[in-house]
Amino acid sequence: MSVAPSFGQVLGFFAFLGRRTGKTRVFAILGLMPVALAVIVRIVLHGRAGLMAAVFTDILMVFFLQFYIVILALFYGSSVTAEEVENRTLSYLLTRPIPKPAIVLGKYAAYSLLMFAMVSLSLALSYFIMNAARLGDPALYLTFLGYLGVLGLGILAYTAFFTFLGTLLKRAIIVGLVFGFGWENVIQYFPGSTQRFSIVHYLKSLLPYRPMSGGGRGVALLLFRLEPTAPLTAVLMLAVITAVLLALACWIFRTKEYLTED
Amino acid sequence: MTAVIAASNLSKWYGNVLGLNDVSLEIEEGITGLLGPNGAGKSTFMKLITGQMKPAIGTVTVRGRRAWNSPEVFRGIGFCPEQDVFYDELTGWEFLTGLLRFYGYAKSEIGDRAARALDIVDLAKDKDRLIRGYSRGMRQRIKFAQAIAHDPGILILDEPLSGLDPLGKRKLIRLIKEFRSQGRTVLVSSHVLPEIEALTSRIVLIHQGKILAQGDIPYIRELIEAHPHQISVRSSEPRTLAARFVGDPSIQKMTFASDGRTLIVETHKRDEFFGRLTGVVLEAGIEVEEITSPDDNLQAVFEYLVGK
Amino acid sequence: MATVREKGYSHWDGRLCERRFPWWPITRTGIQLAFRKKRFKVLFAGAFIPAFVFLVGLYISERLEDFKTIIQGSDRLLNIGPKYFSTYFANGGLLFLIVLVLAFGAGGLIADDLKHNSLQLYFSRPLGKKDYLLGKMSVVGFFVLVFTAVPGLVLIIFKLIFAGSFKFFLQYPWLPLSVLGFSALLTVFLAFYILLLSALSKNSRYVFILIFGTYIFSNVAFGILQSIFRTPYMALFSIPVNLQQVGAFVFGQKPPHNVPAVWSFAVLAAICGLSAAVLDRKIRSVEVIK
To answer: Which parts of chain C register pLDDT below 50?
Structure first.
């Protein structure tokens, strides 16, 4: 039985289901926080484009990159397997003619799409509100796409990691929290190659780093102590990390038994 | 008849606890009842058949194919789990059509199949309600609907009648019997003896992870040589009848029922007893009103086998 | 029709004695269940590290001469007084560890009851909503007090033992009261906070993220707003900062941010009020399904 058609079927089902849950609404509302902030800042700092740009890069991007996508990926990634086991709905999936890897990959893809939609909307609204004075500048859109790409890759990589954790461990949340808010925050300030043992290092290496034309420091704050990896290498590393972790997750899910509490 | 489901030396551990102990059996077409108390290993066996667990020792195949990591097998299997769990955010319709997607049917076919399954379980008018708002019986029926919607040749039903009212049970029993008449194989588990008796006479008795017996109820009864048969004779002169049999070495025990008219005899040699009974009755001119075997039923068989 | 007496029933003429503390079995079970979780014991033990560090600090402060060559400027650093205790109680690390312990050990207090429809089991006993909530809050109270009041009082006792005199106590006689007072405040707030979030979902994994995420996010929001508006009043958005403000007030210290402590009290009280309202609505013996 081929994984590809089943993958699409699982993706469709869980994309539909994921949109329905209350938790998605809560996370979507969380994503409105930067938008609300953008509106407030726009009113308060009206006319000071440089300052507004700086607020976006120095503050809001930190929120997106080091909090929002991590918490989203932690919840949805660990839910790929854990949700089915905890809710005891795994039997409905395992007794269908779909290969087990298709379940993992399909759910992963569905949740990644959902997260990307939430992040995109939040990023787009907050970014363009903050930079409303420069909407005629084509560079603005390129920068936006750069940020969106980084966050998209971050979602894929982090979700793959937490999916792997979720298939392996019963209580993946604790380990995930330690990794996402502990390791990732600390290791990036270590010198030399140590930084490369984190996902956020490669994401930061891809950030569009250029001083904003209206002033501001670009993403200087985010790049503090960063010894960046070349962009192509960073994309490759993120792709490899994602692929390897997903492959491991599929292999574990295929070979492991998940006993539900009856 | 070739076996539809075959288990060979099947064992399964949960840590140090033996869930299933060297089970070898074959399930043929028709309805087979899997009977045992709670914790006997029924659900473990069903999970092994449906590929949700991997055997520790031995094999289990469905139509010659192993269920573990063989998704194709499930095209022909419908499984109704015991747990009362669903994707609560979905309506009945969304739940059925969502799961039918996994079979690769066209959209129109998915709709037809879902509608048909809902009609069968009498949930068509509630299809657009959230499953969260269904009653216990409705939830059981939607679970059954998802097991039959793709027209499987084999149905594995884990306690399908639990939570249903008497009318609902009767309806589902009739439905299951209809499946049998269509040539399908049904394996039903329950710990409620009358439910199994109503469905089938072919049973597998399981207790503490072991198969105690398999076959028709009377056949199993015959096998239990250790336990004497009980025969109840209601007549006008039970004591006269008793007096005639008291010297018979094949009679283990005789008691009188509280109605004062019934003699209950326990014997290892049932056929011999019946042979002698005819002669005694004619000779003594006793009017016999009724002859029954009180323990020729599943309850008695089960109690003998589990040693209660 | 035969009377009940004839059928073998008889009326009991005694008086139903209610348990003095009907909530105690809930508390006891909640604590036991927390310790049954695999990694909880490790986390619980780890949360004592700040107390241990401060205890070592107390010892070093009494033996400064011995450690002078190792620690430079130590007399300023290890000047044991109310500030030392305020630093222990209001340090971000301890608060974070307590929240982590509570998220792991107490996150499912109400969420698991909602998931398994257990509320009806509770309320079919002679147990009121107040007893139920008090029992659940006491679980949170146990864990908070074990990391605050107990180590706080132990630190005071060890200070007296290491110093070999009661001088410290005579100098700061109100210190034990401050320790108990802040511990009680922290207990009440965290009890309401944890139970509020636990009552919002049947999924304990999601509750864990809510507890942890809200705590972290409030601090992130403070950082963001502070950078933009550059006013200390943005500190009121942060749960840990509000706790630190209140802690500084209780120990008679200067608050870390230039905001009157009464505002922090008000914010924490508002969260408790919100929690009370949500809990009153959520904790019902009958679930209404629409």
So the answer is: none
